[in-house]
Every structure is written in structure tokens, then in C-alpha cells.
Amino acid sequence: MKIGVLALQGDFDAHRRRLEELGAEVVLVKKPEQLNDLDGLIIPGGESGTFLKLLGEDGFAKLRDFVLAKPTFGTCAGCILLAAEVENPKQAGLGALDITVRRNAYGRQIDSSIREGLFLNSPIEMVFIRAPKIERVGEGVEVIATEGKDESPVLVRKGKTLAATFHPELSDDPRIHQYFLELVAKL
Amino acid sequence: MSQNNGHNTTSLRLKTGLAEMLKGGVIMDVTTAKQAEIAERAGAVAVMALERVPAQIRAEGGVARMASPKVIREIMAVVDIPVMAKCRIGHFAEAQILQELGVDYIDESEVLTPADEAHHVDKQAFTVPFVCGARNLGEALRRIAEGAAMIRTKGEAGTGDVVHAVRHIRQIVLEMKILTVLGEEELYAKAKEHGAPYELVKMVARDGKLPVPNFSAGGIATPADASLVMQLGAEAVFVGSGIFMKNSTEFADPVEAEKRAKAIVQAATHFKDPKVLLEVSENLAGAMKGLAVSTLDEAHLLQTRGW
């Protein structure tokens, strides 16, 4: 299985390590043509605004074609990119998931935290770094993991698209990447 | 004193976690909210808020201190990317103020005038992460032992001359390579030689890399400079005076500065792709005039501050 990790900037190397541990072949994607023969793609954490600038209009259009057609998993900045609507500030989203995401919703770095949430009803560690929040979950979008007393959605899925507001690549637990690879294998 | 949150491993993972998010990016020195906006627009992954950039500090002299909280707050208000700020070496009170202000990273920096001749800040005692400069592996590991969550090579700030950034990244990479081929019994003597904790030396010998992200700084002024230090092993770059300064006293034209900033951002992402590097280098109207490090007196070097 050939999985790309968007490597314009951010923690792409943490995703690469995890995917390789799980037996996937990994391509670090810096150019649109590298998207051509991938089975799936991960958009990592990083600065979502910087991603948009590095993509440019052409790169953005090609990435959108890919994520609308193929399995894609976004974490943190990647989740922001996959959303239909982005707040704080408003910015372009690829629209692969009908969700509204608020950037830096918990505050600054000092408010970053490691907490326990529920993934498919079992406890799992979640690393939140200057994390966004999913403020609206559209029709047909399934909530796969939640966190906190208010059971905030932190991992959502629609069909082949998966997005997390936290960083499973920074925890030792491989379950969420495993889940994504199973999703890629099924499609 | 600042509260230690009592979970050092958890806390270090959060601190290095933010550094992970900055990898492959460019962190730019800014002195005003306007420059911060330009940096963000150009694609910087973070800005470093300063009162004067290193080239100005070098030219004007005097005591260089933490930037005014008012200016830092203005910068924090206009950008959505992380904001870093510098405190003087050993000046934990400046660090406490910066943490209270809510900056995302503190740089305990040799660019400012050191406040303590014997001690660096106890960075473990803070919730906010710290980055520190280093010229060699021992210095990097001592800073990590004190709690630094990111290392940057020192280079020679404010010169626009990349030669010492290269020297320092090569030195650290070489010293790490050597550790990976030594026997376990040889690591004790190496720990003593580097003046660094044995446990950290052992960790580097096992992994072949620092336990925290390793960035580069000090004299990077062009897209080619950024590519050079990243090909040598740096995971991201800090660009200081090189973007907004024309020479050590005059600011560059903002349009030129933004073009240069954008070009360096592209170079950090595509650092191994000469085609992109050529393209982004072509339309630039030159870089800051700079100062050749070899012409500076030992007494004027900033990199020898800290130990």
C-alpha cells in the first residue's frame, strides 16, 4: 500500500515513521505530480496558512481533486485543510468534509495539553497542540472519537475522509493510523 | 517562580510537539506588527518578536534586552501563527514575564546581552517551551538537560554570513555520528568530554539525532543559504536580519522584503530541489550587504555568549 504524506512543512516525519512501522510504503509529497499513483494521503500537522501559501492556487486545485477522489486523513492543520468552512480567521478549505473548524480554538501554546478521549468507545491518549475545534458536524459526517465532558467531536469521518483535531502521530498508540490504513485497504 | 506542572515527560512532549509542527518552515525575526503581517503573508511558520534585529543590535551597541511586552502583544494580536520572543541568557524573570504574556516559545538567546555569567534559565520550571542556541553537541545537550525543547545552531547572528551556521551544524552532526559508532563503555568518557549528561549522550548514540528538533540560525540571508543548512541536517531555519534589513542600519523596502521572505519559505520546503531554488532565487534584488564574520574581532562575536 502506497501512502503519501504531504511534506510541505509540519510533522510529516512523525507520520512517515508511524506508517512505516505499520508496513505501508511512504512517499513524502512536495509536488502535485507525486499524488498520481497513491492509494491514500495524510495531511499532517503544521501551520495551515503556510500550507495554503506553499500549495498556491494550482497545488490547491490538484490537492482538492485528490482528496475528493481518494482516502485522505488530516491531523490538526490537515483537519483544517479538509474542512468545508474555517473560522478564526476565515480561510479556504478543500471541502472534503462538511464540517466547520475553528483554528487555535483552545488558545495559545500554554493551553496545549495531552488528554484522554474515547476512540470507538475505548480510551485513547490525545495530544492537542494549538489545536482547532470542530464546531459544526454536517449531515453524513460520523463522529469516531470524542473528548471531554461535552463529548466534543475530535475525530470525524465521511466515507474515505478522516480528520482529527489532535495528533495521533505524536502518541505511541498506533490504532488511529491502523484504522486509516484499513479504510484505505477496503476502498 | 513559575509553576512546574509536575508532569515533565508530558510537558516535554507538548513542548517538542510544537517544534515538530514548525519543521520544514521558516521562523522570521520581526520588530513591528507590520513586519509580522508581512512574514505571515509570506508563509512564515512563526515569528520572533524583537525590539531590534541582531544587525541593528550589532551596529548600535548598548544593552540588548527582552522586547517591550507592548510590542510583543501587538504582534500577537495581528498574526495567527505562533509568536516567539527572546529573553537574555539566565534572565528567568524576563522569561516569567514572557510566559505570563502568553508567547508560544521563548528563545534564551545569545543575541541579547547575557544576564547571568554562570547559569542559564532552568527551563524545566516553565510551561512555555524554550529554544536555545548551540555551537556543538555538548552545548546542545546541556541546554536540553536544562529543559530546552528545541535547539538551533547559533551561527553568527546579524551578519548575513552563513559560514558559522554551517560550521555549527556540521560540528553537531559530526559529533552525533561519532557517538553512533562508539561502544557503550566509551560513552562515559564522551559524556565527560562533551560536558553533557551521560543519559543524553547515550540517547544520541542510540538514535543518531538530538532528542529534540534541531533548527539552524545565525547568518542565513538567501534561499540558497536556507537550502544549504537544511541539506546539512537542519530541520527548519530562523532568518533574522536577512529579511527586513538592507544593511545593518536601514530597513529594506517592504515589497523586496516580502519577496525575499517568500523565496526563503519556498527554499525551506524544496531545499533538495535545485529547479525550485533557481526559480525562487532568480527574481530577487540581492540580499542584505552583511558583514564577513572573519573580519570581526573575537569580542564582537555573539556566539561565544552562553557555554
Write the topology of this structure.
The complex is a heterodimer of chains A (187) and B (307).
Chain A: E1 2-6, H1 12-21, E2 25-29, E3 40-43, H2 48-69, E4 72-75, H3 77-82, E5 83-87, E6 97-102, E7 113-119, E8 122-128, E9 133-137, E10 142-147, E11 152-158, E12 161-164, H4 175-186
Parallel strand pairs in A: 1-2, 1-3, 3-4, 4-12, 5-6
Antiparallel strand pairs in A: 6-9, 7-8, 7-10, 10-11, 11-12
Chain B: H1 8-22, E1 26-30, H2 33-42, E2 46-49, H3 54-60, H4 69-78, E3 83-88, H5 92-101, E4 105-109, E5 130-134, H6 137-145, E6 150-153, H7 163-181, H8 187-194, H9 198-207, E7 214-216, H10 223-231, E8 237-239, H11 241-244, H12 254-269, H13 274-282
Parallel strand pairs in B: 1-2, 1-8, 2-3, 3-4, 4-5, 5-6, 6-7
Q: Label the CATH architecture of chain A.
A: 3-Layer(aba) Sandwich
According to CATH, the fold-level topology of chain A is Rossmann fold
How large is the count of helical segments of chain A?
Answer: 4
Question: How much is the radius of gyration of chain B in Å?
Answer: 18 Å
Order of helices and strands of chain B: HEHEHHEHEEHEHHHEHEHHH
Oligomer: heterodimer
Number of alpha- plus pi-helical segments of chain B: 13
- Which whole number gives the mean pLDDT of chain A? 97
Question: Measured on Cα atoms, how large is the radius of gyration of chain A?
Answer: 15 Å
Taken together, the total number of domains of chain A comes to: 1
Major sheet summary line of chain A: 9 strands, mixed
What's this, in brief?
Chain A is 27% helix and 35% strand. Chain A is an alpha/beta fold and 187 residues long.
Structural overview:
The complex is a heterodimer of chains A (187) and B (307). Chain A is an alpha/beta fold. Helices cover 27% and strands 35% of the residues of chain A. Chain A contains 4 helices and 12 strands. In chain A, strand 11 (152-158) and strand 12 (161-164) form a beta hairpin. The longest helix of chain A is centred in the first third of the chain and has 22 residues, at 48-69. The model of chain A has no long low-confidence stretch (mean pLDDT 97). Chain B is of the alpha/beta class. Helix content of chain B is 44%, strand content 11%. In chain B, helix 2 packs parallel to helix 4 (69-78), helix 7 (163-181) crosses helix 9 (198-207) and helix 12 (254-269) runs antiparallel to helix 13 (274-282). Chain B is globular. The two termini of chain B are 24 Å apart. The A-B interface holds A 7-14, 30, 45-47, 49-50, 53-54, 76-77, 88-89, 103-104, 107-110, 112-114, 127, 129-130, 167, 170 and B 10, 13-14, 17-18, 20-25, 40-46, 80-82, 99, 102-105, 127-129, 262, 265-266, 268-270, 273.
